[in-house]
């Protein structure tokens, strides 16, 4: 039986996040330059987006470029930005044909203008699509997002628009880039690294974590399905005991 047939459609996570890792190592294993790994990673992105939409996942968030990635060699940053621009440009039509909305989280204003322009255009062109939302985390880090949220909340307090005692978890949630998006139920990280790397720290409080040894460019539909099946076989207790979950 192929993995997809083992998936229970009534127990799907609404939101899946992915830390796509291992492009560089994949390229090195093949004696190629790192960009070869990133370019091959686009195939894995396409396969994953297709499978997520096919299954009925509502939100898929991909960690494509972190705030820390700005520390990489300039040549790799530039090539990655070009790859993003060209991929978004090429794939907008396919996103529309498949009723997929593109969205982005992160410090978008810090991206090169060509990237910003392409991204904003694709977001605009796909804004009415309803099947799935593909969220690209670009120049994103959770600490950046939380710091920015705290600044905005503090400004509102100083302008007396908000009382400190009225700040709730919901207030913080509403000031994050992911406001309006449900927390991910499943977070996948490829390449055998067991780290969160500053990704959606607030949002993953109750998220199931799934780590695979596969390097990102090797990640295929079947691997995505395996992660979903693994998720479906877990018991999510949210602090309760097993018997309470079974009787509800
Ligand atoms: C991590 O591998 C990957 C990235 C930092 C970039 C991810 C980008 C893509 C897959 C291409 C474009 C994506 C989209 C959404 C169009 P790494 O370089 O950290 O690998 P390493 O840990 O083996 O060095």
Q: How many individual domains? A: 1
CATH level-1 class: Alpha Beta
The helix/strand class is alpha/beta
- Beta strand count: 6
Protein described:
- There is one protein chain.
- The chain is α/β, with parallel strands linked by helices.
- It has one domain: Decaprenyl diphosphate synthase-like (Undecaprenyl pyrophosphate synthetase), CATH 3.40.1180.10.
- It is built from eight helices and six strands, in the order βααβαβαβααββαα.
- The chain has a six-stranded parallel β-sheet, with helices on both faces.
- Helix 2 runs parallel beside helix 3 and helix 3 runs parallel beside helix 4.
- The two termini are 31 Å apart.
- Bound molecules: farnesyl diphosphate (FPP).
- The site of farnesyl diphosphate has 18 residues, from helix 1, helix 2, strand 2 and helix 3.
């Amino acid at each position: 039986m192929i993995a997809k047939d083992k998936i229970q459609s009534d127990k799907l996570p609404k939101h899946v996040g992915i830390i796509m890792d291992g492009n560089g190592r994949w390229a090195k294993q093949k004696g190629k330059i790192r960009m070869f790994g990133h370019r091959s990673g686009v195939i894995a992105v396409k396969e994953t987006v297709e499978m997520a939409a096919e299954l009925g996942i509502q939100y898929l968030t991909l960690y494509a470029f972190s705030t820390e990635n700005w520390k990489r060699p300039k040549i790799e940053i530039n090539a990655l930005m070009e790859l993003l621009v060209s991929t978004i440009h090429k794939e907008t039509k396919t996103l529309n044909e498949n009723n997929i909305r593109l969205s982005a989280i992160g410090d978008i204003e810090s991206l090169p203008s060509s990237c910003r322009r392409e991204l904003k255009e694709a977001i605009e062109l796909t804004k009415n699509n309803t099947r799935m939302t593909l969220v690209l985390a670009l120049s994103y880090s959770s600490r950046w997002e939380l710091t920015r949220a705290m600044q905005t909340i503090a400004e509102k307090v100083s302008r007396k628009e908000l009382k400190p005692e009225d700040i709730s978890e919901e207030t913080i949630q509403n000031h994050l880039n992911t406001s309006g998006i449900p927390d991910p139920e499943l977070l996948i990280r490829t390449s055998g690294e067991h780290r969160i790397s500053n990704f959606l720290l607030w949002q993953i409080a109750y998220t199931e974590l799934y780590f695979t040894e596969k390097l990102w460019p090797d990640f295929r539909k079947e691997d995505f399905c395996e992660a979903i099946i693994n998720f479906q076989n877990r018991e999510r207790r949210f602090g309760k005991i097993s018997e309470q979950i079974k009787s509800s």
